[in-house]
Structures are given as C-alpha cells and as structure tokens.
Amino acid sequence: MAQREELIISIRGLYLHHNCRGPRANQASLMNPPLMGELAVNNWTVYDGPGADAKLVARAQGLHINAGNWHNSFSLVFEDGRFKGSTLQVMGVVVEHGEWAIVGGTGELAMATGIIYKRFHEHNQDGNVMELTIQGFCPRRFNKDPPSEVLHRTHKIGTWGGHGGSPKDIVEPPKRLESITVKSGVVIDSITFTYIDETGKKHTAGPWGGSGGSPYKIQLAVSEFVKEISGTYGTFDGATVITSLKIISNVRTFGPWSTEIGTPFSVPVQKGSGIVGFFARAGKYLDSIGVHVRHV
C-alpha cells in the first residue's frame, strides 16, 4: 500500500524578465493593438535576484493568446539549483500585479499545484521585470517501506526576509537539530545552531549576523524536534531584515523574540517531518532565513 506526503514549495526572490518581443508591450501596443486570437511565443528568463550579478535559474517558455487580455500558458523550466530539470506548468493572464496558477509539474515538482504571486519591480529598455513568489504543494508517493534514501532526503524551503548581507548555509546534510541560540534586540541580530549530521557528527553553524542583542538558547530534548518557525520581516537601519522570530517544537513554543512588525511569515512542515537546520542571508543583522526539512 502506498503512503502519500506533500512537499511544500516555497520560493521567493525570483525575478522574471518580461521582454517586449511578445506579446506586444507598453506604448507599442497602444499604437498597434493586438488582434483577437493573436498568438505570441515567450522565452522569458528568471533570475535569483534583481542585480547584474544575479544567476539565471529558470526560463518561462510557452505561448500567449489574445482573448481580450493576453493569456499565458507556459512551462517554468528550472536550469539551476535543486530543481534543475524539473518544471512547473503555469497558466494565467498578463498583469503587473496578480497571480498565475500552477496546474502541474514534472521531476521533483511532479503534479504540483499552487500559485505564483507576481509584483512589478521595474521597467528597463528590454521590458518589465516582475518579482515572483512561488507557493504550492506536490504529492509524493512512497511504498509502505520507503527506501531510506527517499525518507532521509533533506529539502530546503525559503528564504523569507531581505536580500542584504551574504548567503549562509551548512555543508554537511543535517539529521537532527540539537540547539538554537537567537540573539535579539530591536530586531533579530543573529542565529547560531548545532546539529547532528547523517554520520552522527556534531556541527555548529553561526553566529550568522551581528554581535548585538541578548542571547536566548534552546536546548532540544532527544525526542524533540522543531515543527514550525514564524516571524516578521521589515525595514530597519536601511535594510530589510528579520524583525521577529518564533520557534515551535513538538512540545514547546519559544519566543517571539523582538517586535512583531512588518510582513509576517510562517513555515510549518508536514506531519512526519521536522526542521533540522537553517540557511540564511546575514550581515549586521539576520537579513533572511530559510529551513532544511527532513523526515523525522
């Protein structure tokens, strides 16, 4: 008999370059309005940031058809990172603010469903740049006795927060969190944690962030695991940073630390899984945070 669990898809900080070659865009479309039923083909590029040093991570390849508005039907084809070779099947209309529907997927994202939220970022000589936030789920099927390499696979979810600081991550695949230390003042200054890898070796990561704030240490019991983190992020000292943080285990709640102001976020994990590590961006403060998730 098969068991089913859901893989949470949560990807922020993607920027789609929507060029003017098709469908017709901006002032040109006002002078030459498209005809009903007109077709256009896209091959938009998607980067992991808005700057010139951003990395190409995916392409949006597909069709437009004009039916009073330009309707998209395309594949978001990932070319870099964990989802390389996987696709999301996407449909919706071309608007600067709004949503596209995820109606399927392949590879790691097989049978995905969800929403891609899009927001206008800027206009340049090539067209519009849209900020994307992907939220969705895809079912995963396992046999009654799943292979250990499938159950023990670690997934990354996030990040939430700003784009400042420098990227922080762990090298060895985590198996279990042992302790977490959060330093906070007006905002979250830093995070440090210890974890056990798949070989049983203990590692310490961090501190990621600055040296300010008061420390709050969580020592997890042997049978205790983190099932959710939540918090807020907003502007402080000229940058977007994590402004508050709360950690929930299967037996206790820790925090929230600092002041819950700004945009809220919440990262619950599915039953049978736990948060076993973190990754982030950090500088003077904790700019953003994401999680490593694993079957527990």
Automatic annotation (TrEMBL):
<dbReference type="InterPro" id="IPR004265">
    <property type="entry name" value="Dirigent"/>
</dbReference>
<dbReference type="Pfam" id="PF03018">
    <property type="entry name" value="Dirigent"/>
</dbReference>
<dbReference type="GO" id="GO:0048046">
    <property type="term" value="C:apoplast"/>
</dbReference>
<keyword id="KW-0430">Lectin</keyword>
<dbReference type="InterPro" id="IPR036404">
    <property type="entry name" value="Jacalin-like_lectin_dom_sf"/>
</dbReference>
<dbReference type="Pfam" id="PF01419">
    <property type="entry name" value="Jacalin"/>
</dbReference>
<keyword id="KW-0964">Secreted</keyword>
<comment type="similarity">
    <text>Belongs to the plant dirigent protein family.</text>
</comment>
<protein>
    <recommendedName>
        <fullName>Dirigent protein</fullName>
    </recommendedName>
</protein>
<comment type="function">
    <text>Dirigent proteins impart stereoselectivity on the phenoxy radical-coupling reaction, yielding optically active lignans from two molecules of coniferyl alcohol in the biosynthesis of lignans, flavonolignans, and alkaloids and thus plays a central role in plant secondary metabolism.</text>
</comment>
<feature type="domain" description="Jacalin-type lectin">
    <location>
        <begin position="154"/>
        <end position="295"/>
    </location>
</feature>
<dbReference type="GO" id="GO:0030246">
    <property type="term" value="F:carbohydrate binding"/>
</dbReference>
<keyword id="KW-0052">Apoplast</keyword>
<comment type="subunit">
    <text>Homodimer.</text>
</comment>
<dbReference type="InterPro" id="IPR033734">
    <property type="entry name" value="Jacalin-like_lectin_dom_plant"/>
</dbReference>
<dbReference type="InterPro" id="IPR001229">
    <property type="entry name" value="Jacalin-like_lectin_dom"/>
</dbReference>
